[in-house]
Design brief:
The chain has about 140 residues and is of the alpha+beta class. It is built from 2 helices and 6 strands.
Length: about 140
């Protein structure tokens, strides 16, 4: 059975390179769920949850900002915000590294083609470029 509870959003965390939302239940227990939407750190939301017989907790995506005053936040807000920003930074760094490794692989794959292109005379450059594009379309699955 689904129930509505008042939870405090404690920010994002990262686990295994994935973005996770950290929520604090009314008893102060942390609950982590895949990140969905955007929430304000330290603010309370009405969340819809379902508790299974085995103790498994399922949260729906229907969080509503409560406008309720957040109590007991003073001593924790700076820590939650720091963890939130650290996770954002780490996730951003990993995304940049992933993109760079993909760019490196493409650059390495293009090296032989670029070496050939450097040897092509100016009169043949347009034909060489047209040939490369034709191969990309026909053999590269672009057509």
């Amino acid at each position: 059975m689904q129930e509505q509870e008042l939870w405090t959003y404690a920010g994002i965390r990262q686990s295994g390179g994935k973005k996770i939302d950290c929520w604090l239940m009314i008893d102060g227990t942390e609950a982590w769920f895949p990140a969905r939407g955007s929430h304000a750190v330290g603010h309370q939301y009405v969340v819809t949850v379902e508790r299974g017989e085995n103790g498994r907790l399922t949260k729906t995506d229907r969080d509503k900002y409560s406008n309720a005053p957040t109590e007991d936040v003073e001593g924790h807000l700076e820590g939650w915000t720091a963890l939130h920003r650290a996770a954002q930074t780490e996730l951003g760094r990993k995304a940049i590294e992933k993109k760079a490794s993909q760019d490196d692989a493409l650059d390495k794959a293009l090296e032989p083609l670029l070496e050939m292109a450097a040897k092509v005379g100016s009169a043949q450059r347009a034909a060489f470029a047209a040939y490369v594009l034709h191969q990309l379309y026909t053999r590269g699955g672009w057509s």
